[in-house]
């Protein structure tokens, strides 16, 4: 029986640790029949080491999504490896330390601008860099967000950055629909990944899930979110775009 990504070619960013959603997305994508390529920054060697734990060997290329030179050559480099792309996974987010951890009112604009550039604008720039490879029958862009409807403890300027990411997703859906390119997000619950560990007071934020999520939530299990990404990459959502699908144990639906 073939997998739901049989014959698909997918670029995946953000594989930093085995505990990351991106790693489990890559593993599941391979298991479901996709050929993948990984991007990494600032340490491709770290991603290469983690990539050895995937079911099949895969190439890792360096990509700084804030670097126009890197973005400008991406289609050529990926095209030489895979020929074309059917899917792109955006699993990139970063904010300087002074933009997190309760410092919201004192964060300088330079740090806010960095958070916005890396975490939100990069969805557009990565998609446009890959677009020349997604011309045959369109493609699927899937990003990862953390529900931007709310002000979370300690999350500070990553909250507005994720809100910008969610808005960017809708505008990409609007403008790329004519080329049959879908753009959607998975809104995942908290995972004990490298990104999470960089947030001061992450435990306080994560504890909300213990109290309020209808379905039991496991901080150590990124696979449910990875399954959501793979589903959106597949042909099983052919007319879904501009959407945010919650994989958060149902917490988004609960008031108090």
**Shape type:** globular
Query: What is the tally of helical segments?
Result: 8
Kindly state the mean pLDDT as a whole number?
94
Helix content: 25-40%
Order of helices and strands: EHEHEHEHEHEHHHE
Oligomeric status: single chain
Query: Tally of extended strands?
Result: 7
Name of the CATH superfamily = NAD(P)-binding Rossmann-like Domain
* The top level CATH class name: Alpha Beta
**Which structural class do you get from the secondary structure elements?**
alpha/beta
Low-confidence stretches: none
How much of the residues is beta strand, in percent? 5-15%
For the record, give the distance between the C-alpha atoms at the N and C termini, rounded to a whole number: 44 Å
Radius of gyration: 17 Å
């Amino acid at each position: 029986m073939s997998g739901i990504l049989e014959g698909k070619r997918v670029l995946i960013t953000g594989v930093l640790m085995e505990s990351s959603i991106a790693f489990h997305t890559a593993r599941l994508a391979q298991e479901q029949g996709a050929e993948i390529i990984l991007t990494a920054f600032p340490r491709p060697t770290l991603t290469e080491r983690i990539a050895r734990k995937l079911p099949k060997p895969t190439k890792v290329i360096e990509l700084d999504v804030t670097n126009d030179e890197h973005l400008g050559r991406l289609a050529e480099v990926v095209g030489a490896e895979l020929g074309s792309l059917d899917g792109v996974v955006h699993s990139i987010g970063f904010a300087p330390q002074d933009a997190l951890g309760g410092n919201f009112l004192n964060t300088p604009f330079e740090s806010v601008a960095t958070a916005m550039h890396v975490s939100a604008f990069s969805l557009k720039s990565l998609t446009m860099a890959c677009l020349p490879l997604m011309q045959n029958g369109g493609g699927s862009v899937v990003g990862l967000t953390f529900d931007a409807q709310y002000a979370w403890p300690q999350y500070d300027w990553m909250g507005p950055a994720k809100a910008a990411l969610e808005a960017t997703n809708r505008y990409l859906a609007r403008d790329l629909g004519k080329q049959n390119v879908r753009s959607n997000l998975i809104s995942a619950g908290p995972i004990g990944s490298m990104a999470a560990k960089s947030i001061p007071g992450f435990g306080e934020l994560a504890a909300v899930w213990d109290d309020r999520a209808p379905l039991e939530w496991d901080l150590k299990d990124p696979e449910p979110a990875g399954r959501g990404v793979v589903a959106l990459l597949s042909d099983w959502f052919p007319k879904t775009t501009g959407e945010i699908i919650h994989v958060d144990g149902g917490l988004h639906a609960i008031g108090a």
